[in-house]
Amino acid sequence: MTDIPLLKVNDLSKFYGKRIGCRNVSFELWPGEVLAIVGESGSGKTTLLNCISTRLMPTTGSVEYHMRDGGYRDLYHMNEAERRFLMRTDWGFVHQNPADGLRMTVSAGANVGERLMAIGDRHYGKIRSTAIDWLERVEIDADRIDDQPRAFSGGMRQRLQIARNLVTGPRLVFMDEPTGGLDVSVQARLLDLVRGLVNDLGLSAIIVTHDLAVARLLSHRMMVMKDGTVIEQGLTDRVLDDPREPYTQLLVSSILQV
């Protein structure tokens, strides 16, 4: 990790009328760091993720990103085209439902290749070769490159979505319940794959999950949310092994299986 944060979130809030989505959230994310945002359904964790990733406009606050040219940009002072380019190149977003992050009616190879074309690659042979390499990295046989995602299992679709997101060498990846809806054995295989890729590529990641076992396996640091507010944060093992807030203690005792 460097001594310069990759992402700075400052007093971020989102309100839906009188209802709180998230409130006064501030933190910094460092290069190579994985942050888990955990909490029960309705705690505000997905709202926060969507605000940070510019998928949802916050009510107040700012999100500053350290660009490749060395300067910081407030994401909400960028125009739409600049934000879209950032999402296609320097960021990834892994949805809980792979169908939300894939084009289901084009081939697996095209799903991966589209991201390469977004950064200017035009050589068909090179794009196909890179797509094959990434399919193999996420444990999909190369001979499935021309198959459409709708012919894949749920676990394969999620792995394809990961390949699509990582092929451009992003520095930051957002993951929204990446193992949700998968069988336990498929979850374990996917988690091992994600952990290996994050470590190998030196990625920063923000992972939203209700599963504290997922958070323990993947993250360095954890934030616990309740009613739109961050009530506890710290190193993941510290929060899980010695929770200080009564709500976190209840969450750990009722959900975490160790």
TrEMBL record:
Keyword rRNA-binding: no
Xref: Pfam families: ABC_tran
Keywords carried by this UniProt record: ATP-binding, Nucleotide-binding
CDD domains named in the record: ABC_NikE_OppD_transporters (cd03257)
Recorded superkingdom: Bacteria
SMART domains listed in its UniProt record: AAA
ABC transporter domain location: 7-252
Keyword Plastid: no
Gene Ontology process terms (BP): organic phosphonate catabolic process
Similarity remark: Belongs to the ABC transporter superfamily.
The protein, known as: Putative phosphonate transport system ATP-binding protein
Organism name: Rhizobium aethiopicum
